[in-house]
Predict the structure.
Amino acid sequence: MTTKQIDYCIELARTLNFSRAAENLFVSQPTFSYQIRLLEEEIGFRVFERSGKGAALTPAGAQFVSFLAGMRQELKRAIEQGQNFSAKYRDSISISLMVRQALCFLPEAMRLFAEAMPDVLLTPVFQYENGMESFLRGEADVVFALQEQTRQLAGTRVHELFESRIYLIADRADPLAEKNLICEADLYGRTLMVGGGSPAALKAVQHRLTASGRIDWFNSPDHDTTLTNVAAGRGVCLAPGFLNDHSGKFAWIPFDCDERFSCVLCTHRDDNRASLKAFLRILKELYDKAVAFPL
């Protein structure tokens, strides 16, 4: 099965019309139909039912194309990365993190690293979930994590990076945005959004506040949804400082509590590349110098 046949199959599944699919991919209909037939002969079952009105996916074909589309996206990404790599790089480092803002100084670190080692490609990979599992499978060279996630991990090195505190996120027009420090009493009578895969330390604070009986609460499934709810005036929320994108869209006010998040980077124990050590050193220096930077 060729990549061309895969593309033909996905396009026909989208249009369900041989003529339109062939036209969209700039080939003749006979060539297009022939390639689809070759693909079906190779895999041993019909993906499409033909009719005078066009094509329809068979039940097996529908399942096949759904897997095929995901595989094609991964293949496309691999080809693009290979093209980038072959053009000017001799080595590569991939770093996995859940969202861009988790490492606020990553863009600056990438710039400094490129100046020091221009022949090594540094690639961020964003995985909102399962980043640690992906790293342990060897799909990333570095992963951003919380210290609590790294206990009893075999074959890894843990590099301390920075400590992050808890902040209240509110709309800038909210009266709470004028405060320099938020305490529990400030939230009485307010609605606090909770949940969304919160780390253990944050869940403890949320539970303590909602258990008071003086604060309403509202379940929000993830951080982006929570920020949307804050913007819509549905309430306020607590979040780790490492999720702050520093865009100024919302007010982030320190919350008065002892809970903190120890943010770390994990690498594979047997990865002793000088380029990797150089990147870690650059990033660590940026955070060490950020004495007054809110984290």
